[in-house]
Amino acid sequence: MNKQFELLKHFPIFAQLNDHFLQEISEIVIEKNFKKSTIIFMEGEKGEAVFFIKTGKIKISKLSSDGRELILNIYGIGDVFAEVTLFNDVNYPATAEVIEDATVWMILNEKMEEKVRKNSELGLEYIKILSKRLFDSQEKLKHMALNDTHVRTAQVLIKLAQEHGKEKNGIIELQLPISRQELANIIGTARETVSRALSQLKKDNVIEIKGKSISIKDMKKLKKWIGA
To answer: For residues 209 and 216, what is the distance between their CA atoms, to the nearest angstrom?
Structure first.
């Protein structure tokens, strides 16, 4: 069996598939290597493929009506993106940019659609991913509407810690160098406002900041900021 076949098992969307079907999937995978800052596709371009992250990190963002960047998510190893274009014949709804050198597997939509039609388990896993994306989007909109910036900052830091954090001696370091502006673009507010929230968290000894590196020193205190 080829190496791609074995690695496919580590992607949640493929984990429940039998070996025969995994072998079929591995035969349509196209592997691509991207350097940091490379644009994989732009918002509005024709949606032609689904992407799976083997290594590295990818930023998904949109432009607001006034030209500001809104970061929808940052994906890492094992994540899927551009899945919304499958079966829809739509353009990519956002831009995908490499923020850490990445190896990405691409499967053309026409090939993926053919496989999904043949296997109900794959179709079910795909529905789960789309449902999770919809839920996350609804939660983000709800938080932006109901919570102040300090609460939203804490919520984003907790999410980033869960998805990109590495714990050592009780401190969780975000394995994701991120600027104040990028953090503001995720939260949906001004950089100055986020800086004030981070300064307060640092003053309260909840986080530690070194350049673009953020570490969470006290997760319990951070969760108190959101009432958890």
So the answer is: 9
How buried is residue 171: exposed, middle or buried, by Cβ count under 10 Å (0-12/13-18/19+)? middle
Cα–Cα distance measured from residue 154 to residue 223, given in angstroms and rounded to the nearest whole number = 7
Q: What is the pLDDT of residues 102-153, one digit of tens each?
A: 999 999 999 988 888 888 877 777 777 777 777 776 666 665 554 578 888 9
* 5-14, 57-66, 104-113, 207-216: segment of lowest average pLDDT: 5-14
Phi-psi region of 54 (alpha: psi -120 to 50; beta: other; left: phi over 0): alpha
On whether the CB atoms of residues 136 and 175 are closer than 8 A, the answer is no
Backbone angles phi, psi at 123, to 5 degrees: -60, -40
Question: In 3D, which of 128, 118, 101 has the Cα closest to residue 40?
Answer: 101
Amino acid 165 reads: G
